[in-house]
Amino acid sequence: GAGVSQSPSNKVTEKGKDVELRCDPISGHTALYWYRQSLGQGLEFLIYFQGNSAPDKSGLPSDRFSAERTGGSVSTLTIQRTQQEDSAVYLCASSFGQTGELFFGEGSRLTVL
Amino acid sequence: AQRVTQPEKLLSVFKGAPVELKCNYSYSGSPELFWYVQYSRQRLQLLLRHISRESIKGFTADLNKGETSFHLKKPFAQEEDSAMYYCALSSGGYNKLIFGAGTRLAVHP
User: Given A1, A18, B20, B64, which is the most exposed site by the fewest CB atoms within 10 A?
Assistant: First the structure.
């Protein structure tokens, strides 16, 4: 596909369960970002990957959140023991170079009951 | 601390009226600023960046370092401009963007 692909598009889970969100960036984009979009809060930076390494993970809210990227391509964001405050839209973006232009996916909407 | 503030959650105007979406920032270095837009049922996408000094879809934005502002302006709003607009600041030497909370622009016929 031509754009950033995220799955699942919607996920409803029970409090305490683990969830995995997947991002497939644009081919050739070396940088990958995860953001969280909560109602009225704008976009909150979570983590940045350059290749397979994460030089900036300063936005991860707690140790329940982790992310990895393999093969310089697909990334997975994992949330363990989900809480209701984790409910949000999780956006993935990728970029190439330093233009400041991020290409976003459609997001994964997570609802924790 | 680096911060982007968009004071208006909603801006409602009539077609043909001028539009100004406000953005203020705090950043100790030399800022790079952007406007991103999300139309209904579409992905978030780049609208314009201050270093390009370009006009996109009739929108312009000027960086005012004295007032630490980067307001987005359009002289005559169109219904298709209705969308969510986010101001963003580049930080960290790579493409890490700090976003504001966003302003929803509603253009009425």
Answer: A1
Q: Does B104 touch chain A (CB under 8 A)?
A: no
Q: Which amino acid is it at A62?
A: S
- Write out the two tokens for A12: 């409803």
Q: From residue A75, how far is each of A2, A70, B43, B58 by CA, in Å?
A: 17, 7, 19, 37
- Region B37-66: what's the mean pLDDT? 90
Task: Report the distance separating Cα A18 and Cα A80, nearest Å.
Answer: 4
B48 touches chain A (CB under 8 A): no
Chain A touched by B32 (CB under 8 Å): yes
Q: How far is B70 from chain A (nearest CA, A)?
A: 16
